[in-house]
Design goal:
Largest sheet: 5 strands, antiparallel
Order of helices and strands: EEEHEE
Distance between the termini: 32 Å
Helix content: 10-25%
Number of helices: 1
Radius of gyration: 14 Å
Strand order of the largest sheet: 3-2-1-4-5
Structural class: mainly beta
Number of domains: 1
Number of strands: 5
Shape: globular
Strand content: 35-45%
Amino acid sequence: MPVLPGPYEIHELEDLESRKVTVLKYELGDVVIHPRYPGAPAEKTVHAMRIFVSAADKPHGPAYWDITSQTLIAQLEPQLRAAPPAGVKIKLTAHGIAPSKRYAVEILP
């Protein structure tokens, strides 16, 4: 996998928090993260999905989110691959706390 260029905008939601965005396009690649948990390595390379969104959905910083949740990537990738060229509006809702956090994915009209 190619390494996605920085800066990284890691997508994070708290338990039961939701976010609605229109995904215009996406890329798959690797990102280098710096874990903060006790005993963590100084850096770690993980597979990621970069979703590009409109400036209205993310008015500050780059207009993309980097998703590192492997289960969320597995849910999103087939749906985004089949999305129309104009993009697809989705709602992501987090359930639980990492590392067992999971996401509900809802395709919106």
